[in-house]
Amino acid sequence: MGSFSNHDPLRNRKLLLHKKEIIKIKSNTEKKGMTIVPLSLYLKGSWIKLTIGVGKGKKLHDKRHDEKTKKYKKRNQLCTKKINYYAELLQLRI
Question: ∠ at Cα 91 (88, 94), nearest 5°?
Fold first, then answer.
């Protein structure tokens, strides 16, 4: 038991699930490539509630595809920013 002044912030917390749910999540995470992912976190009074899910990680080709799309988006934003900047300069000089 602890109060506000002497609580242990790093102690293990209880997972409030039914035994079947815990076994199901554990068996899913023991499979290759599966992991527990936090989906949402919110406060309700003095409780912190977390919604979790079991997900599969990305493959290498998926990661490469995402990197490529990020690169193109960033490049596109930079180009449009430059175009807008130069268009503004031209309007000021006229």
Answer: 155
**CB contact at 8 A, 47 and 16:** no
Question: Tens digit of pLDDT for each residue in 31-86?
Answer: 877 888 899 999 988 888 889 888 887 777 788 888 999 999 999 999 999 999 88
Domain count, the chain: 2
What is the radius of gyration, based on Cα positions, of the chain? 24
Domain match, 51 and 78 both: no
The residue segments making up the domain with residue 93 are 58-94
Q: Torsion angle of alpha carbons 90, 92, 93, 94, nearest 10°?
A: 90
pTM of the model: 0.47
d(CA 15, CA 29): 16
Q: Alpha carbon of 48 to those of 26, 42, 59: distances in Å?
A: 22, 6, 33
